[in-house]
Amino acid sequence: MTRFLDVHDTSRLIARVGVPRFVGELVDALRADYLRWNDFDKSPRVACHSHDGVIELMSVADSKLFAFKYVNGHPVNADRGMHTVMAFGALADVDTGYPVLLAELTLITALRTAATSVLARHWLAPLFPRIARPAAPYYLMPHTSRAATDAFAAWLAGLCERALRDVPEFLSRRT
Known about the structure:
Elements: E1 3-5, H1 7-17, H2 19-35, E2 41-42, E3 46-49, E4 54-61, E5 65-73, E6 87-93, E7 99-104, H3 106-124, E8 130-133, E9 136-139, H4 145-164, H5 167-172
Parallel strand pairs: 1-7
Antiparallel strand pairs: 2-4, 3-4, 4-5, 5-6, 6-7, 8-9
Helix pairs in contact: 2-3, 2-4, 3-4
């Protein structure tokens, strides 16, 4: 059976799990995937550019699953009272071609971006002895980088929680 995950389902899942835990689990999943980077069949993204924006289609697969994400970027939509970025995607079984998930991915994309930022900061921290975070500089040492990463993740999670409070407005603006 193909499952469908809409923005209501996504926001309920995130609320039930909690943004910090959700972002933390995304960080762990991204880390695991980057560690097996060579196992993925990666294709260059396909892009359709217009005067007002871009529509992109991105796909990736391993030996078991195929996934794609459609995402747009239309800055002019803000002037139209519409969202500037929207995304959806699908996950399919490679052996059968059977779709196992269709999902609205706009919120997930935002949280994935936060998780990627946390992961990048964690991996890049040893290269930079002093990193500025909002409102205060701090030093990262090998023995403190996990705590600093957790603090940064918590800060990003707070931003995401504030964004999720706007979900009712987001849902009411369907066009």
